[in-house]
Amino acid sequence: MESLHDPEAKRALRRQLRRKRSILSRHEQRQAALNLCQQLKRLPEVQRARRISLYLPVNGEIDPTPLLPWFQKRNVDVYLPVLRPLSANSLWFVAYHAHTPMVKNRFGILEPDTRFAAHRRNRLPAWALDTLIVPLVGFDAQANRMGMGGGFYDRSLAFIRRGGPAPALIGVAHACQQVDTLPVEPWDVPLTAVASDRAVVRADKKKSRP
Ligand SMILES: Nc1ncnc2c1ncn2[C@@H]1O[C@H](COP(=O)(O)OP(=O)(O)O)[C@@H](O)[C@H]1O
Ligand SMILES: [Mg+2]
User: Fold this and answer.
1) Burial degree of 14 (CB within 10 A; 0-12, 13-18, 19+)
2) CA torsion angle for 168, 143, 110, 129 (degrees, to 10)?
3) Could you tell me how many helices (H) and strands (E) the chain has, helices first?
4) Considering the domain boundaries, does residue 33 fall inside one?
5) Which residues bind ATP (predicted)?
6) Contact of 4 with 181, CB cutoff 8 Å
7) Residue 31 lies in a domain
8) How far is the CA of 187 from the centre of ligand 1 (A)?
9) 155 lines ligand 1 (CB under 6 A)
10) Cα of 145 to ligand 1 centre, how many Å?
11) Do 32 and 197 contact (CB within 8 A), yes or no?
């Protein structure tokens, strides 16, 4: 049997899972987003967060932004990931409001425009957040994550593998992105849980936190 770790097998699985979510209709996407937000509101890691990161969906990713008014009402500070200019392929997080000026990054994804000095002051490294809502391409019943293949979240969260205090990491996805088992690489940072439009799966505590 070919190994799940084989780069070609991983690429094929990513392609297959991305296709699945890209064919969802606008109506299915909307319904999934609303159902996801109901699941997220019940999670203690989301309820207790004072600083939380979301993302703006691309390529059929499930949309976590219906949560924005709920966070606003609760005075929770919401952040979006931004590509770090001088640090290869890693992220920091910039405060996001209705009037935040946005700009497309090199992947065509909108992010807060950090050319404005005011926004530079509002940016944080991942360790300063309570909870991160993390997009993913695939997940399994142990809350293992397969991303887009760039390792951006793994790099930005590598400090977690050294132990010590860490933000909660909540992966989010369409239920159709679940597979039986994913290959886990040494650099993959374990999630706390994955929430989909149908259910929440939690990582085994002993494995997820050293
Ligand atoms: N902490 C890290 N430091 C350096 N490179 C990393 C780190 N984490 C991941 N990478 C690199 O990023 C690449 C993509 O990682 P992978 O886990 O396959 O992608 P994704 O998490 O997006 O699915 C890998 O080739 C890996 O070597
Ligand atoms: Mg990874």
Assistant:
1) middle
2) 10
3) 7, 12
4) yes
5) 10-14, 145-153
6) yes
7) yes
8) 6
9) yes
10) 12
11) yes
Structural domain boundaries, residue 183: 7-208
- Please write the tens of the pLDDT for every residue from 104-149: 999 999 999 988 777 777 899 999 999 999 999 999 999 999 999 9
CATH number, position 171: 3.40.50.10420
Q: What distance in angstroms lies between residue 162's CA and the mean position of ligand 2's atoms?
A: 16
Among the listed residues 124, 138, 120, 131, the one whose alpha carbon sits nearest the alpha carbon of residue 201: 138
Does 203 map to a domain? Answer: yes
User: pLDDT for 43-73, tens place per residue?
Assistant: 999 999 999 999 999 999 999 999 999 999 9
Tokens matching residue 130: 């309570």
Is residue 57 within 6 Å of ligand 1 at its C-beta? no
- DSSP states of 12-70 as a string? HHHHHHHHHHHT--HHHHHHHHHHHHHHHHT-HHHHS-SEEE-----TT----GGGHHH
Domains identified in the chain, total number = 1
pLDDT(1) > 60: no
Task: State residue 12 phi and psi, 5-degree precision.
Answer: -65, -40
Find out whether 148 and 108 touch, Cβ atoms under 8 Å: no
Q: Give, in degrees to the nearest 5, the angle at Cα 79 between 207 and 178.
A: 40
150 annotated binding-site participant: yes
